[in-house]
Hints:
Number of helices: 3
Largest sheet: 10 strands, parallel
Oligomer: single chain
Structural class: mainly beta
Strand content: over 45%
Shape: globular
Helix content: 10-25%
Number of strands: 14
Amino acid sequence: QNCEVHLDELRNCVVFVPKPITAVRIRGLVDCDIYCAAVEGPAYVEEAVRSRIRLAARQLRIHHSHHTDFYVALASGPIIEDCADLGFADSSLRWRHDTIDSTKLPLKSDAFKLVQVFKWVKASEPSPNWSLIDDHQDEHFFLEKENSPPLSAQTEEAERVGLVFGHVRQKLRL
């Protein structure tokens, strides 16, 4: 079960990691959607651009990334360095078989708000390099509300390997 996942130099991809892993290293993403069910240790993200990352992890460190949104459940606040225009929100994804619960991660409900910014020395002012995502608009990019069309074959495969979407509005490339 000691599995570490590395995702390197991906463009226009959707990646699902439906089983618990010990660590994830993500580098060089452009226009990607990443779903990690549970990372029992650290999650490292470097050089992510215009992407969306959804995960549960003990720790999240982000370097040299911009215009990327993070939907996370964490044990401690994210740490960012040399980043700009990052968004953070609480993860609302559901996984089959209580994948996250099985890891016993000590998740804190508000950890996504506790962003630490290296190199930001103005303690009296908030960093302009990140913000909270207010309305979860991006979550609805993949998750559709009631009265949506039936699941596509590709989405059924995603659901088979672990991610529960409900109804999906757009076809996914797996």
